[in-house]
C-alpha cells in the first residue's frame, strides 16, 4: 500500500505538468493568427490559409515555382519541355521523378484512363497548349500511334535517371496532376515548419489539415455542374467537411465548346482519341494526397460511373462523390458509403 502511495505521489507532479502544458499549448494555438496568402501559379489562382505566427508566402511561392519549373509546358526551360523536345535531363531524386512515378502507378491501375501522354489529342481538339479544333478520324488514328502511358518509362543509367520514349513523337503533359502535386508540396512545407492547421487551394484542388479558424473541420463546397465556360456560376451542390485529407474535382462543365449542335468537352479518352461522352458530369475524389486525388478524378471522368465504381471497390482508401446524368438526362448523385459522414449539406 505504501509503495502504491509513493508511486501516486511521484506521478501527480508529472500529471499536473502534463495538464498545464496541454492547456498552454491549446491556448497558444487558439491565440495564434491564421495567415492568408494568394497568388497565381500553373495558369490559375491559389489561396492558402494557415495558422502560424509568421507569414510564409515567400517560401510557399518558392516551392510552387519549383513545381512550375519542372512541370510547366509553357516554360521552355522546364523539365517536361526539355523531354518533349527530345532532350534527356537527369530526373534523379527530383519532383519530376516523384510525380512521374505517381502518375505511372495510377495509369496502370486505371488501365490507361489516366494518361500523361494524351496532350497531342487534347491540343488537336482545341483544349490544350495549341488551338486546333475538330481533327479528322484519320488524324486521330495517327496521333493514337504515339499516345499511351506504356510508351514511356524510366531508365536508370550510370549517370542518372531518364525518361525513355518508345516513339520520339510522344509528349508529356502533367497538367492533370500538377495542381494536386503543388498542393502536396505546399502541405509538406507547412508541416516541416510545424504548421498543423491549414487549407491549400490551387485551382480547386485542395489539401486540408487540422481545423479552420473556428476550430472545426474545413468546409469545402462542390459546385453544381451546369455549363459555365466563363466560370461565373457559384451554385453549390454539397458541402464536405474535410480534415487531414486531400480533395480534387474534375468536370466537363467549364471547359467545352459546341460545334454543329454537339458538345465537345476537354476530357479526352486516351483509348478512343475522342472527347468522353460518359455520364459523369463532376468527379470529386478524396485521398491521402492531392496528386492522387487529382489523377483519379480525371480517370473517373474517362471511365464513367460503372468503371469508376469498379476502381473504388478495389481502392477502399479512396472516396468519391459523383454528379452524373441519369437515364432521363437529369442530374443524380452517387458517393462512396465512407463519405457519408463528411457530407454537411
Please characterize this protein's 3D structure.
The structure is a single chain. The chain has 345 residues and is of the alpha+beta class. Helix content is 36%, strand content 25%. It has an eight-stranded antiparallel beta sheet, covered by helices on one side.
Number of strands: 14
Detail the poorly predicted runs: 21-28, 228-232
- Strand percentage lies at 15-25%
Tally of helical segments: 8
**What sequence of helices (H) and strands (E) makes up the elements?**
HEEHHHHHEEHEEEEEEEEHEE
The order of strands across the largest sheet is 1-2-5-6-9-12-13-14
| Main beta-sheet annotation | 8 strands, antiparallel
Roughly how many Å is the radius of gyration?
A: 23 Å
- Oligomerization status of the protein chains: single chain
The end-to-end distance, rounded to whole angstroms, is 57 Å
Sum up the structure in keywords:
345 residues, alpha+beta, 8-stranded antiparallel β-sheet, 8 helices
Brief synopsis:
With 345 residues, this protein is α+β, with helices and mostly antiparallel strands. The chain has eight helices and 14 strands.
